[in-house]
Amino acid sequence: EASDPKEDGTTVCVQQGVPWLQDCVLSLSPCSDLLVIAREHKAAFLSAKWQTDDSGREEMTLAVSWSGTLSSEEGSSTGRPDWTCIVVGFSSGYVRFYTENGVLLLAQLLNEDPVLRLKCRTYEIPRHPGVTEQHEELSILYPTALVTIDGFSLFQSLRACRNQVARAAAAGSDVVQPPPLAYKKWGLQDMDIIVDHSSVGIMTLNVFDQMKNASILGGFHASVKGSPPAMSQYMTVGGGPFTGFYYAVEGSSQPLLSHVALAVASKLTSALFSAASGWLGWKNKNEEEPGQKQKPKVEPATPLPVRFGLPDSRRHGESICLSPCNTMAGVTDDFGRVTLLDVARGIAIRMWKGYRDAQLGWVQVSEARGEREIATSPSMPRRHAQFLVIYAPRRGILEVWGTQHGPRVGAFTVGKHCRLLYPGYRLMGVNSVTSQGWHLHTQQVCLFDPTTGVLRSITIPFHLALSDKKSERAKDMHLLKRLTLLMTRNSALKHLGFFRQALESMLTSKNAPVACMTNVTRALLASLKEQDPEAVDESLLQLCSSQLRLLQLYTDVQLLHTPDSSPTETESLSVAGIEEDLARVGPILQRYAELNSRPSVSFAQDPGGPLPVRAFLSQLVFEGGELRVVRGPDTDWTHLGSFLFWGCLSGQSPLERVCETLQQSGISPQQLLSLLLTVWLNREKEILKRADAIRNLHTLLNTLSSMKGALDESWDVQCISPWWQQVRNACVQSESAGAALLAGLVAHRAAKSSITSLAESKLSQVRMGHFQADWEFVSLELEQWVVCVRQLEDVLALQTLLSLPPPQGSPGGAVPRCSVKSLLESGRGGVADSVAKLIFRQDAAPEMLQDIVQRRVAEQNSEEPVEELLQLAEAEKDGIQRLEGNYGRFPHSLAPDVLWAHCCWEYVVQWNKDPEASTPTKPHITKNVGKAPKDRLCRRDVGMGDAAMTSFLGSCVQLLQTLMEADSGVEEVSVPELCMEEVWGSAEGLASIAELALQQKAVHYPLVQHHCLLASLLHAAMSFSLRLKPLSLFDSKGKNAFFRDLTSIQLLPSGDVDPNLVAIRQEVRLISHSLLFKNKQDSGSAKTGGQVDWLAVCMELASLLQVSADILRRHLVWELYNQGLDLRAEEVMLEVEDKDVLGSQLLVLTGQRLAFSLLHSQTQTKATMELLARLPPTLCTWLKAMDPSELQCPSVSLQQSSRLVCRVIEMLPENHAQYSIALHLLEAVDSLQEHK
User: Fold this and answer.
1) Residue 445, class by beta-carbon neighbours within 10 Å (0-12 exposed, 13-18 middle, 19+ buried)?
2) Beta strands in 40-183 (DSSP E)
3) Which range (777-781, 888-892, 1208-1212) has the least confidence?
4) For the region Disordered, what residue ranges are annotated (predicted)?
5) H helices present in 1082-1213, as ranges
């Protein structure tokens, strides 16, 4: 058994999601009765045991028989193993042999390198007379050496060791140390890396090949021996070359063992072992010499050069698997290829690609023994077929291929973490003499799934190798031979216990016809009745009788559903009262059918077509003499219901005869009703296309209701009927809104008719003299139906709205489904929540939604009919306006405030699915950066881009302002009252968003205002890319109050002016500067940044930051003049209080304009130079000191500059120090205008 646990205790990390067994070494015995699992220096042995599961079925289970720390097969005369020996190779080079109980039998150090692979070759009966007989052998691969141990000597030694251990355990004495084993050690040369090997066995070349090899190796003068020598062939895989072929001539290397131990290994028997143990050197532990405790000597290897190989410098082999007949081998490599090699010729004959990390195994199938007996030539030997099994873990598929050039005969989808277990050998201890009459156990290929613990064996029929996979002739001929052989033998079941198994196997067969099942069951029943009653198993007799009745029922129903061309009686197409109901719900039902008629995906595995007889028999059982339907999966239940009732619903089968047959079968009416409703509700698309389905359903309901046991005879009309309650439960739980409503309408009419007839029969028993007037019957049952039908109509209207297709370009998805039960369990906000999700999917504009709400509010007193659900149905893009019709059905659930609340919450939920962002993160970014962060920084720290950040901050400002407005007006508005529609008053579940909102505490207005100030600053900084540190504008109290619960009371900044007021003013001036620049780009508009009135925002921020509004206005006037917007500046100038300071500021700006015209203009004229020379020296010096580069718009008209100088003179008092300069400026501007 190939195992490789590590002695050094190396820990192997297991990848997440991969079963831990992937890191273990697994090995399975050829008889599949022992599984070894090893990892590091731990091992567990699992033995096969029979056990009975919960259903009473016996199955084989591998249970742990031994496990612990680690300090081949042998046969008996029956062909089964007497005991199993486990061979374990260690990383230290040791090879140890254990029993099934973990007892160490033998240990020997063969090489000082880690053991790579352990492989065993057992005896094979020669298939042809000329085939060389192969002997048993154990081969051990090291990185640079190959050790082989003769199987016969190993078999004798292990048996002797086991007997000695057993006697020592019985006598309580110590176990003596056995002598070493005889082995051959080859030093494999001329290969860079060797990872796996196969020992092909002894081969003899023919004369031609012998002469060819001699001439190639020895040249022209090479000598050739008379007889070809026998050679042992070894194949290796690895790298440099990819595959190597080694040939060791027999007799070139002697076994490495002393003459005494060699005699022991070859001639020792159990009796001699006991008598001569001391003479052989197997001393007790107490008698061991000190030198024996030293590390044993490792014998050198005999060099063995590679004869030839398959060179491929880039390809590295990973494993090799030899076929059972030693003629072919499969090799896997790191390129994901599987190569099939011809062992004798040493060439590649086939290659598969796309099998990375593949695992290989071989299955050899023999032709059945009986087939040769009836063949034309009885002396022809049995034929054998070989199949290559490939497991691709990357793809999770197991494939079976015919060799050498056969097709793929099978493919199975399995897990991606399975292990393919292929021992590659049989029982050990067999030779040509002892194998006579043995039935050698076939080599099995098993697939082990570590996730489920299931071990599956692979069985392949022989006929798959006879011809191409698409040829059915070979398969039919093979099956015909087997059938002929079976019929020629006089074989019959004798034991009654096997009759049941045979009958159950036939009844569960997938391909057996129902007529064949009926005839066989009837014949078996007749045979049992003819036997002695005391000798017949009563349970088998009942099984035959019950199964025969079920088969007859299946046949009768199948015949009734067969299309019949005979004329049938025409029935009335109308159902009393149903026309009015259909006229009421007809338009919405038609629109619902159109929206749900789109094609859907179906799979070949989906149940379709007629119900197989085995599925019918598996769902019906007889218990206590009564026939009962076993409720299985929904698909099976629907399939059974379709088999029984679909022909009736579609009008293809006679309703009365079908119901009569089902009534005679003994199935309870309740189960028949459940099957009928299941097929009606699950085949909604087909139901809505058939006009006569409603009439057929009404007939079936009336027929089932009239069956015995359906309606209780003692039922009071003033009580709820369990029969009709079953119908209501099915309708309210179904998500097929259209079919559920139709079933509810039909059942309502059927129940009303039944209740009316029952009440009239009871009334007729009373004296007619006491009742002269007409009476209208009122019952609790009918009231339940009225509520149920109204609920079903509401659900249909809502489901039609939810079925609207999404807009073009939006991601698709499954249509949300709703039912009466789901709406009742979703609480008071279920309807609004569903509509809010629809509004988000439809990407509806808030303006359109507001228009619908306003129209509904204006028509509160009008009751809209159901037909208004179809408004604008022809325009698919305006399908969201269908919401207007739902207000008539859900006036309270879709109230404007409730709908707005759920829509807002849905948008928040959808926004939250993106990378999360929060308001507290933004100030910390700007605090560290000192300016509006770039897109990369926003995405790294917040999870959204700078554009999304700006929009988000604007929304935060609006939300905080809304909270302040709501808090300021809370005393003026009464608390809204949340109501529900009468039919939905029993809704239970989570509280709606509106209810949760009303339960919230009131916010603390100053704290909300404090946060709104911060949000406004952040919004302005992001909108205009300001260099702003928002938290620096607040003192320690203000900073500590941020990001607290808005309902809490925090310590906020007082009204005292902070010393940092100068810095705050500077920041506000920066805001104004950017604002004016933005206004200039907006071509005269006072609102920028998404319709935000930033002028009003700046004034409000100045008030909150305790900045003088007059300072802000003066700075704003200066900025407007600086941008050349003189008219707008004059408007703001009227609100400025300190005119003197403003005049001084504007005087400098006027000087900059005049200096640009006189000194820095590119078009200076002679008149301009003369004017400059005539100016007073004081003014000329003052103008030269001006810097026009600070002007954002220096090129303004002289009329604007003259008007500005006049304004400055008006604002400056006559005693002002710069009043004279202003007068000189006015003269200069006027003179310049004259020269222009």
Assistant:
1) buried
2) 42-52, 58-69, 73-75, 81-84, 86-89, 94-98, 104-109, 117-121, 137-141, 145-150
3) 777-781
4) 284-305
5) 1094-1104, 1109-1122, 1126-1133, 1139-1158, 1166-1174, 1177-1184, 1198-1211
CB 54 within 8 A of CB 449: no
The closest alpha carbon to 578, from 750, 795, 726, belongs to 750
State both tokens at 892: 């309270």
As a whole number of Å, the end-to-end CA separation of the chain is 111
Question: Do β-strands 230-239 and 193-204 pair in parallel, antiparallel, or remain unpaired?
Answer: antiparallel
pLDDT band at 339 (very low <50, low <70, confident <90, very high): very high
pLDDT digits (tens, 9 = 90+) for 669-691: 899 999 999 999 998 888 888 88
Separation in Å, CA 476 to CA 463, 467, 481, 505, 597: 9, 11, 9, 22, 45
193: three-class secondary structure by DSSP? strand
Cα atoms in the 13 Å half-sphere on the side-chain side of 812: 4
pLDDT of residue 1217: 75
Query: Which stretches within 561-668 are classed as H helix?
Result: 578-595, 613-619, 634-649, 655-665
| 1028 three-class SS | coil
From 693, 809, 669, select the one nearest 743 (Cα to Cα).
693
Burial class (CB in 10 A: 0-12, 13-18, 19+), 481: middle
Among the listed residues 47, 43, 6, the one whose alpha carbon sits nearest the alpha carbon of residue 29 = 47
Strands 184-188 and 302-304: parallel
**pLDDT single digits (tens) 245-279:** 999 987 766 566 433 333 333 433 333 333 333 33
- Mean predicted lDDT score pLDDT of the chain: 76
Q: What percent of the chain has pLDDT over 70?
A: 72
- 307: closest CA among 255, 257, 346? 346
Quick one: tokens of 442? Answer: 């076939």
Q: Of 897, 891, 898, nearest to 983 (Cα)?
A: 891
**Alpha carbons 498 and 504: distance in angstroms, whole number:** 10
Element (H, E) at 203: strand 193-204
930: which DSSP letter?
S
Nearest to 199 by CA among 184, 216, 217: 184
The whole model's pTM is what?
0.57
DSSP-assigned states of every residue in 1209-1228: HHHS-TTSTTHHHHHHHHHH
